[in-house]
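Quick sanity check, SAM-dependent methyltransferase TRM5/TYW2-type domain-containing protein:
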Amino acid sequence: MNVPCVRVPREEGEATRSDLADADLIDDDYEIAVEDGNLYIPITDAEAVPDDLEIVRRPADERRTQTRPADLLGFDPSYERLGKAVLLDEDDPDRAWEIADAVLESDLPVETVLNKASKVKGETRVRDWELLAGEDTEVVHREYGCEFALDLAEVYFSPRLATERHRVAEQVESGERAFDMFAGVGPFVVPFAKRGAECVGVDINPAAIEYLRENARRNGVEDRVTAICANVRTLVPPRVDASEGEGATERDTKGAPNYENWADRIVMNLPHSADEFLDTAVAIAGDDCVLHYYDIQHEDDPFGPGERAIRDAAEPEYDVSVETRHTVRSYAPHELNVCLDVRLERSSA
């Protein structure tokens, strides 16, 4: 059958294959082919491939030497790959153990199998895991040339957002000042820094900040990354609405670094409650700032609530223009995870 493949000259093949493998874009179900001096590398997601690579559709031979979990089970199990870990979401314990055994017997390069044991919970957005195989919940994940260490039991991380993170990172230019308000282990911050940006990553989870610092070192960008464990609201002076009167609550910012009017680019990837932090984002924004605002809304109006919230927070101090309305993925029945790329330009009025 015809499958999407990256076509590169044979002499560039190994470097390209390595980059695609780092981004987890190689389709392991098909063989890599050589023909007429070119290498044809089957890929899983053509839209996620960098624009400078050529994509063609061509026949590809199925890889028959690799035993997959489905070959052993008789059905195609659902799982995610994260580094050398497989992540399951199975309510039936017997089925989970059956899949774990098949994963380990297959030819997948896997050392750890984990089954989700709870929903994402709490302020740090972590979940409980059942360890079905392996020694612990720490993994090393590679994504578009970056390497991330993380402990799934201590931090939040979604491998499904790799393509979205790459989309945003490609917009970053050297010399920018980028601020991630909910940085986690650094999946936005680290690639931004690798593109030459000066970055600040903030998270309320101490474990996430320690991994962010480690990941900055792993990727050779520690000199361009500042990692701060804090509630991001404490990093700008409080704005008290005069209508709230003397009873207004002020935040304690004593001793905290001040990032007011600092950023050229801000990431707000906290979809269920990012709107609650828009006043802080506006305070952090410089005179000309791009805001990447993530939201989860009903499919009938996925972008409207976020755009209205941003305008309410930023206008008239800033002129607000929406540059991109982007659907990241389906989140739940009739609900979409979306991103608004919004430019804030300080008003001259």
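Posting the structure with no commentary besides this: The longest helix spans residues 93-105.
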